Amino acid sequence: MRKYLITAIFLLFISLFIVPGVFAEKQYIYDDANIFTDNERTDLENRAAEYSEENEIDILILTKDESDGRDIEPYIEDFYDEQGPGYDGDHGDTVILGLDFSGGPGDRDLYVAGFYAGEKYVDNKRAAQIVDQLIPDLSVNDYYDASLLYFEKVDKYMGVSPIVNPDGFLLQTWFHLLVAVIIGAAIVGSMIFNMGGRVTTNASTYLDANNSRVKSKSDRYLRQTVTKTKIQKNTGGGRGGGGGGMTRGGHSHSGARGKF
Amino acid sequence: MLVHYKCPNCGADMKFDSASGHLACESCGHEEHIDTFDDVNITQSFEEDEAKEYHCENCGAVVLTDADTTATSCSFCGAGVVLADRLSGELAPAKVIPFTISKEEAMQAFKKWCKNGRLTPKGFMTADRVKNITGMYVPFWMYDLDNDVEVKATGTKVRTYRRGDYRYTETKYYRVRRDIDISYLKVPVDASEKMDDELMDKLEPYDYNKLEGFKTPYLAGYLAEKYNYTDDELFDRVKAKIRGFLDTYIGSTVRGYTSVNYEQKNIRTKKAKSYYVLLPVWMVYYDFDKQEHTFAMNGQSGKIVGKPPLSYSKAALWFSGIAGGSFVLFKTIAIMLGGDIL
Ligand SMILES: [Zn+2]
Ligand SMILES: [Zn+2]
Fold this sequence. Notes:
The complex is a heterodimer.
Chain A: H1 2-24, E1 29-31, H2 38-55, E2 58-64, H3 72-83, E3 94-100, E4 109-115, H4 117-121, H5 124-139, H6 143-158, H7 173-193, E5 213-230, E6 241-242, E7 245-246, E8 252-259
Parallel strand pairs in A: 1-2, 2-3
Antiparallel strand pairs in A: 3-4, 4-8, 6-8, 7-8
Helix pairs in contact in A: 2-6, 5-6
Chain B: E1 2-5, E2 14-17, E3 22-25, E4 31-32, E5 42-45, E6 54-55, E7 62-63, E8 69-73, E9 80-83, E10 95-96, H1 103-115, H2 122-125, E11 130-163, E12 166-190, H3 197-203, E13 212-213, E14 223-225, H4 235-253, E15 259-288, E16 291-298, E17 304-305, H5 312-336
Parallel strand pairs in B: 10-15, 11-14
Antiparallel strand pairs in B: 1-5, 1-9, 2-3, 3-4, 6-7, 8-9, 8-14, 10-13, 11-12, 11-15, 15-16, 16-17
The complex binds zinc ion (2 copies).
Transmembrane segments (chain B): 315-337
Keywords (chain B): Membrane, Transmembrane, Transmembrane helix
Protein name (chain B): TFIIB-type zinc ribbon-containing protein
């Protein structure tokens, strides 16, 4: 009896450490299409956990195959509604990469979606940028490298204010150098140019305003030309297209899709 | 014909005083109003061969002049003399703007200007090698000009709007005609051969409220020259000078268009009047680095023009300071927006 009690207490004691750990252990990689090896999956889980913790947002990867007939976008939306991921709690800040292996090579869908903070920092345009950058790796079946790139991109984009393009020239050092050199050259150039004294007369210095006037004027309409151009739909600037939407559970999200 | 201005008090030579605007005696301090200065006190000496040589009445020395000089000082006794025969008849100036800045003030202003030279070599900034500073009345022609301008142009008004999936750009063309009178008063053009035109243009503007009727005593103690070019000879130059002004005025009468293409600008410029005037300039000759640099100062406003030497190391310092500063600023903004450090 006493032995059982000790065993029970021991088990309880162990479970105190293990059980909360089991509950707290979040899953980031939902590899339903079985495209990663066990090693890769473990590694990606660890990295996803690190990146998620660092950026305070859940960064997930979902894969599916033809056994689920849904399109990748509603698939991600339903997953979000059902699982309610989020760094800050149920149905919270999340970025999801969805890979759909239903079709053949070149006809398989990928989708990047952002929820809440994810919607703000990985907006439609940035999602499209990520999609575009993942396609080369995905096209040669390099899913593991594509996943790493996805983490890195989300990690980078989460740190960049939504008002600037994280991959644009505005944040590039060469651009800062170029503008700085232009400003320096322009200011010092005008200083040198003005060293000898500036011309300080202008068109009104000698004007006799009392005796200057328009005697007659005419503005006669001649003809008009009209040209029309088709307005290009914003496709996110690349192959990635789509845009966000709303889950059935009422969670708005950003997103972009592409094929690989 | 050499003119001396003798002090009625003590008989010494008088000079124009820029502070009071009067003739002043340096020996006894006596001042005389230029308008009321008695002709009795103007002593004139007549030479046999006027065109060649003038002799100082005080000391008898030859007064050194060249063909253009109209006023100078005796290089021996310093008496200010005016060569009146070169200022009469056709050569009589109509107006003069007297000096308001004295030699000492000019020197001080020049030193201050040198000190503020942000791109000049250090040795230049001390301004301790000013070789010479000379007050000079430079001959100018001033033109009153009436311009009759006829303009033909095509103007466009562009409007864009969206209908359905298309963006429409509608361009309307207009035939624009203008008939304009544009007048300018007292546009100055330097009439001296020796003076650099660009330098003289930069000295402008002068305050024309201070234009006085010409009297020879204004020149006492200064250098003065007569014009080398007549008003007709310089007419093309004054026309070129107002061309930009005319274009600005014309542009201001053609408003409201997206673009204007001028097909014809017929400009007829008529000279309504021209005056021969003398304008005050302090010439500063500065030896630096075995080179003479010439500067000119507006004798009325104090504006200084002329190219000082350039210190490349200072220019490089300014450049790296400004470029480096802007780089740090951009980088800081970029990092605040989430960019990388490198
Ligand atoms: Zn006296
Ligand atoms: Zn003398």
